[in-house]
Amino acid sequence: MLGYALVAPVVLWRLATSIYPFIYTAYLSFFENSPIGQVHEFIGFDNYVRMARDPDVHDTIGFTIFFTLTSVGLQIVLGLGIAELLTRPFRGRSLARAVNLLPWAIAPIVIGTAATWIFNQDYGLINDIIWRITGARPLWLIHPTSARFAVTITDAWKNTAFLAVIFIAGLQGISRELYEAARIDGASAIATFRYITLPLMMPLIISIGIFAAVYRVTSFEIVYALTQGGPGTATALMSYLVYLNGFRVLDFGYAAALSMGLCLMVLIVGLVGFALLRRSWTRST
Amino acid sequence: MATVTTAHEASQPTTRRPPRKLLYRVLFYLSVLAFMAIILVPIYYIFLTAFMPGSRLFSTPLNYFPEGLNLDRFRIVFTSLPLGRYLLNTLFLATVSTIIALVVSFLGAYGIARIRFPGANLVLVGLLLSSALPGVATVIPLFQMYQTLHLMNTLQGLLLLYVSALLPVTVWVLVSFIRQVPSEIEDAAKVDGAGFLQLLWRIVLPLVSPAIATLGVINFIVSWNEFFTPLIFARGPNSKVISMALTEAQVVGSSTQFYQNWGNMSAVAILATVPVFLVTLIFQRQIVEGITSGAVK
Questions:
Q1: Whole-model pTM over 0.90
Q2: Is A170–B296 a contact, with Cβ atoms under 8 angstroms apart?
Q3: Fewer beta carbons within 10 Å, N or C terminal of chain B?
């Protein structure tokens, strides 16, 4: 009895604010529902059919895949690089580790908003540096491809710190004796990384990669602030489409169906990640 | 010395000639410098945009040297928007949601970790799965519920959702922490006739206090940085948070120049960021422990 009494607040809290609303979203996705004119009418799979044909959704799926793979890839490579740097002893290391935490602490909405002028063509920080080196001032947010990169770079800038912190802990967990043995065998730095660090870090890289991928698929703020999904829908993510359809167009039924589509995407990422993780476990044992 | 040789010094023992080692050190420090610059320069640029007259900063090329620093932008955003109230709301929500989430999670985690009852693992798995649900997958029914229950645009309404978002991770970390603490001390206290609440307060809480501190700091930052929830549920100064002033600041004051809008937004960005920077720098160790405790076990 005591056990149930202790978990009851947590369970009730989550039931009321997460699980019940989720089930109700699934239910709403089969309805035409809007606060305008109090519409609530059962329409079967119509919202899903509409979703499958919606060109905005096709754009969004394409960008979500690009964004997730590129941003998570960047975060893993840069995160490992930063972790390699910050696990070596040098003067000012604790300062560098503190600096590493700063992007993690800033709210994504603040970073997304600041990025709107950091990527400005004439007076943005990025173009100022590019112009000093090459004399060119690329347009970032006007063209689909460069806008996609702008969103991805901004996201990677914010979130690499998180992975780096975890990778630092992972590297510190690798036995010094292994490196010592590699040194005696005359292994090069690259060989040491390739044959010792990387295989031992792989399960951690994959599990954190899945976690990061799920967050990319569901992210909202950077796109909301930086590009509003544009140009057109080149940088729209599913959360942003749900927001647009739900709270600008007030088409609750369709927004509900879109958010079920997003849950399916999260599920796919989770399953692919789990399969990868199992493979890396069986390999390492 | 030999045992503390680092990985890069350990490489290539046969060719460890001084010039090569020097080159290695130069490259190493250049990488560290590049890393610091990539993080710090954009932050510095945001500060300049807020404190420096735009006419001096936004020349071609940009003038990164601070000149004529002033508080004009802050004065403008503070006089035209209720930022004091926004900041107070943000602080209230972050602090109170952190405390409530810790109390509720501590009780739940103790129940799961120590009192083995049927369904305990189901609760853990359910929490994990529900935490993977994206915010937009629950927001429409919540919006309808909040309108019926008159929770729109109220701090208590936001608080319910802020706490909810913190619960899954907080419970998970506390469960794994309590399971690592040997239960003999609690058994001894029970034999001595300690009541249940006394046991929790006097014995268990001190043992898990490092985890409580870590989660407290991280949860505070997470709640401070919330944006999507207030965007949907906060409609006025009663409940709006500081980050919502970012877009509002764009259109206030007699800003005729683009850089005045940027200056206003930067001022708000700084108000929204400096508190979390301070918390981060003061509680660095707890944050690193918190981030890694969820991942590396």
A1: yes
A2: yes
A3: N
